[in-house]
Amino acid sequence: MLSVLVPGGGGQLGRDLAALASADVEIVAPGSAELDLTSAGAVIGAVGTLAEDARKAGRAPVVINAAAYTAVDAAEADERRAFAVNADAPRVLAAACSSRRVPLVHVSTDYVFPGDAERPYEPEDDLGPRSAYGRTKAAGEDAVLGSGARAWVVRTSWVYGLGGSNFVETMVRLESERETLSVVDDQHGAPTWSAQLAAGLLELGRFIAEGRAPERRILHCTGGGETTWYGFARAIFEELGADPERVRPCTTEEFPRPAPRPAYSVLSNRSWTESGLTPLSPWREALSGYFAARR
């Protein structure tokens, strides 16, 4: 029996977590309008209510923080706001969890790494974020892990989900608008369907509540395998029944963006599977599942 508070309930991951509520899993997933994570009083009150209600009902409380400032390019010009959401808010949330003895699972990103590796990143590899978004997320990790709370950081990558603003939905729109399009083929990562990530995070929450919490405090959880944005786009066209040859490869230099992107940010899922947690599907298989659900 579990009671879960999901800050960031209005996002694609938060909605997928909320959808997993069942008879033995109570999930409260407030959006930013209902729970302003930049308000310390609101955060402390929400965690306190979770702890009291869960224990009265004989349930184990867990917080899964799905809230984040994810506008990667916008963060370059508004790092203060990104820091408030991605670092300051998790610090307050973790302190509240520590004081009420509520375990915390905090979702982070591949962008905390420099992106110059030649093999998938392990949790213990050195960080080196090259964007404002990555810096604020790395600061959030430090805040959570240094808070004294029973906390776990779960890094993921290239997340897409139903109803979200993401790469998949952008490609779906562009397929209907353009005859051809160019997509970068020199940035490597692992696409992750938010519905599968949500199921994994809830499984981790159950492990923690049942006394089977992983010894590692940083875990990586992504779709299996790797691809480039170009390869990802071609697969999306295939799912749409469109000709993937309409997608043309280009370089990062040919498609400049305000925020630098990591050239290689594949995360190793070994820490996840070695903790006994269920691995996510290979990314290509998950994408087919997404389109089946989307229809």
Produce a short descriptive summary:
This protein is of the alpha/beta class.
Question: Which descriptors would you attach to this protein?
Answer:
single chain; 295 residues; alpha/beta; 12 strands; six-stranded parallel sheet; globular; Rossmann fold
Task: Give a written overview of the molecule.
By secondary structure, this protein is of the alpha/beta class. The strands form four sheets. It has a six-stranded parallel sheet with strand order 2-1-3-4-5-10, with helices on both faces. A two-stranded parallel sheet has the order 6-9. The radius of gyration is 19 Å and the shape is globular. The protein is built from ten helices and twelve strands. The mean pLDDT is 97.
Oligomeric state: single chain
H/E element string? EHEHEHHEHEEHEEEHEEHEHH
Helix/strand/pairing class, anyone? alpha/beta
Biggest β-sheet strands, sense, barrel? 6 strands, parallel
| Computed CA radius of gyration, to the nearest angstrom | 19 Å
User: Which spans of ≥5 residues are poorly predicted at pLDDT below 50?
Assistant: none
- Indicate the percent of residues in helices: 40-55%
State the fourth-level CATH superfamily: NAD(P)-binding Rossmann-like Domain
Briefly note the CATH topology name: Rossmann fold
* Number of structurally distinct domains: 1
